[in-house]
Each structure stands twice: as C-alpha cells, then as structure tokens.
Amino acid sequence: MSAPPRRGTLRLVLQVALAAAGVFVLLFLAWRIREALLLAFAAVVVAVVLDAAAGPVERWSGLSRSLALAVVALVVALVLLGFGWLLGSSIQSQVSSLASQLPQAIGQLEETLGIELLAREEGQQGGLADITAAVRQLFGSLAALGSSIAGALTALVLVVVGGFFLAADPHLYRRGLVKMFPPRMHARVDDALGAAGRALRLWLLAELIAMAIVFVLVSLGAWAIGLPAPLALGLFAGLTEFVPIIGPIVGAIPGLLLALTQGGSTLIWAALLYLAIQQLESNVITPVVQERMAEIPPALLLFSVLAFGLVFGMAGVIVAAPLTVLLYVLVKKLYLRQTLGEATDVPGEDEAEPKKAGTVA
Fold first, then answer.
1. 83 touches 89 (CB < 8 A)
2. The pLDDT of residue 88
3. What is the domain partition of the chain in residue ranges?
4. CA distance 80 to 115
5. pLDDT tens digits along 54-106
6. Rounded distance, CA 166 to CA 158, Å?
C-alpha cells in the first residue's frame, strides 16, 4: 500500500535533482563563456546606439534600415575624420607629452610622500648579462603589449560588427529571445525587453551628453590654470566619465599629477577645478540630463561596478553601468511588478503605459 507514495516521492526527488543539475550545467557553461557573453552585451549596447541614430534617419528619409545604418556609419566616419583633422595632431602631441611627463610627476610624488609607488629592480651591476636581461624584458613587455592591443582590437571589431548585425534587424533577435520562454510569458517578456531597451537608450544618451560636457569643462579649465596638454586631459576625463562613481576619480588623477610638477598653487587650483566639475556633474549635469531618462540609484551602480570588475576585470568595469541598467529594469518589470505585484516605477517605460501591478498567470 505504501509503494505508490514512495515511487511518487522518488520521482519528485529525481526531477528536482535533474533540474538542479541542469541549472548547474548552464551556470558552468555561462561561466566558461563569460567573455563571449560580455562581448555580446557590448554589441547590444552598440546596437542600441546605432538603432537610436538610424531610427530618425529611417523615418525622415524613407530609407530601408540597412541604408539608414550605412548613412549613420558614414556620418560617424566623417565626424571622426573631421575631428582627427582639426584636433587629431594636437591631441596626439598632447597625449605624448602627457605620457612623457607623468613618470616625472609620479617620481616627484614619491619623493614628496617618501613612498615607492612603482616597483623598481635593484642591484643591477651592468655588463652583458644585465643588458641581455633588459633586452629580454623589453621584448617580453612589447610582445605582451602587442598581444593585448591585438586582442582589444579584435574584440572591438567583433563588438562593432555584431552591433551592426543586431541593429539591422533588432526585432528578429528580440522575437527569438522571447520564444525561449513559455508562450504564456511571451507578451510580458517582450514588454520588459522593450522597456529595458528604451531605458538603456536613454541612459546612454544621458552619458554621452555628460561625457561631452566634462570634456569641454576639463579642457577649458586645464587650459585656464596652465596645465600642459589640456585637450588630452579633457579627453581622458570625458572618457572615464562613462564609468560611474569611479570614473570621475580616475579621470582627475593625470591632471593632479601634472599639477604637482607645476607647484603647490597649481595643484590647489587643479584640485578645485576637478572638485568643482565633479560637483557640477553630480548635482547639476546628471540630474538635468537624466530627467525623464533612466535614473539608477548611485549605490547600486557603485557596487555593480565593483562586482562586475571582480568577475570580468576591466571589461566588466566598462560595461557594468549599462548592464546594471538592463538588469535593473528587468528585475523591476518582471519580478517586482509582475511576480510580486508591487507597484513600482520602471525606467524606460512609456508614460502612457499604465503602471499597475500584475501577477504572473
């Protein structure tokens, strides 16, 4: 009489074990291909930018999506070529000047603080053996640098090409992703993906505006207080602005190091400059450009940057913010609102869309 319940219990245990094993295998595979997944998401970010730029061209001109993307690519190429023609040589010389002056600034900082920031080899006696070892170390460093640059360029090409493919027919890939879920969830998953895409596009637009403003302000401020290579300093500060919380701090380091070589008064002015720009960015620029855009809690961005940096390295730090925006919207849309039934605002959601709580059928 007790045999059927035992078989039922055994079957349930077996099903749970198989499900747990399947989840473990999927997580293991995801971990093994984590770099590829990160590149795929970077391609999604590029596709979002391309889609935002190609959409208006497609609507206003009546061109097909492929031709609209070609027009966008041509315009971007012309803008980059024009920027390079106007400021390229100046920025290149300033970057070279910046790279040559930073070691001196670091050395002066080490002398001032009485600490060693860069490890140096001791006990070199000269002679053929030392020359041979130095040459080997130089060639090893050049080989490692060349390999890193080649890997970065390969990853960049893959991301850009993948972004163009995704932007050429985004609905195809979106429908394919939706069909991986049960039919009863198709409408909700598709709606959540749409909201996530809009939030990501708005967040990227806000970041690009903030990066451009920081570039201009740092360049003008560095030129005003007499720092060398102001365009290079502004470009570096603008690029690091893409990484939230940590980026503005990193972007100020080269300017402060160069100011240290110019004297105490220049260092004070440089510190005040970066502090003023940081306060302006966090209290004025960011709130203004993120109004009606995707606003993410700062603490969440900070710890996501740290977490993705630990898992993926520097590449994880770079894409941590857009990946956090995507996950933030999906969690609020699919879990908090539709599963738990909580009423919550979702970044990227259309204003006309009702913000009512729902439950999964």
1. no
2. 58
3. 34-113+155-337
4. 42
5. 888 888 888 888 888 888 888 888 877 776 665 555 666 666 666 666 666 66
6. 12
Q: Identify the weakest region by mean pLDDT among 67-76, 147-156, 182-191, 308-317.
A: 147-156
From 92-96, 127-131, 175-179, the region with the lowest mean pLDDT: 127-131
| Type of residue at 129 | A
Give burial (CB, 10 Å; 0-12/13-18/19+) of 97.
middle
On whether the CB atoms of residues 173 and 162 are closer than 8 A, the answer is no
Q: Distance between CA atoms of 22 and 15, rounded to whole angstroms?
A: 10
Quick one: average pLDDT of 280-298?
A: 70
Residues in the chain: 361
Specify burial of residue 5 (Cβ count, 10 A radius: 0-12, 13-18, 19+): exposed
Query: What whole-number distance in Å separates Cα of residue 251 and Cα of residue 243?
Result: 10
Number of separate helices (H) and strands (E) present in the chain:
13, 0
* Residue among 249, 267, 269, 250 nearest 258 (CA): 267
Q: Residue 223 corresponds to which amino acid?
A: W
pLDDT at residue number 125: 46
- State the Cα–Cα distance between residues 304 and 325, nearest whole angstrom: 10
Please tell me the pTM assigned to this model.
0.69
